[in-house]
Please model this.
Amino acid sequence: MNPAAFNELFTVRDLLRYAVSQFNAAKLAFGHGSDNAWDEAVYLLLHTLHLPLDTLDPFLDARVLADERERFLTLVERRLTERVPAAYLTGEAWLQGHRFSVDSRVIVPRSPIAELLADDLAPWISDPDSIEFVLDLCTGSGCLAVLAALAYPNAQVDAVDISDNALEVADENIEQFGLDGRVTTHRSDLFEQMPSCEYDLIVCNPPYVNSHSMESLPAEYRHEPTLALAGGEDGMDLVRRILDSAPDFMAPDGILVLEIGNEYENFLAAFPDLEPVWLSTENSDDQILLLTREQLAS
Model:
């Protein structure tokens, strides 16, 4: 910890200014819940002080206690020297206003599919109450499975991952939301160990980062499990398997919602005959696609 910072910074405003300056000077990589130094510094400080995450202004000129200052500066130091994502430092990530427990066993929840689930995937799903079976493939922390259960109150949701470590985290989040009876975790290599089922909806945020991009990932992303990121030479290794097997697990009018991140060109090259619907979110137009069972089966 910087002794000068500990001895000379006394208010919330002081600590924020220092953290933003340090984060910018260190050229940290963001993208695990925030996309800039200010937002991340605000989050870390409000979390440390146990203050509401959406209420900063009334506290800017409040003085902090020595132990509060020490806790925050310790987090800042770890963020700077270890390049640990903020979510791993706090043990939590926020998605669509919901808090999820996370640690280095899973990637930090950030899928824009969450934004679509907040709108019940309208208009592609016209009646949320009619959805009976949902599959979250490559569930990781279980965040999309939980959000799907909240969006579709009559649905049974299966949350699938190949990683036992990830499923432990998913189970924690399912219990935290009181969804033990409706969301069930399964260890499976994609569909291979799954029992037969006709899902109305499959959502999937698979490993899709191509090998060239994997080699140049910022340090922050290297703290995340490689198994949850690496998608092979063109990023499409798991996507090929998913699209091949998905029709066998879909209801006749079922849909698949699949995230491919920044691999749009690689997807087009790998599947030139597919014509998915590209779903727009606040920050993307070509990262999430929708396919029907009819399209996949043909």
Notes: The chain is about 35% helix and 15% strand.
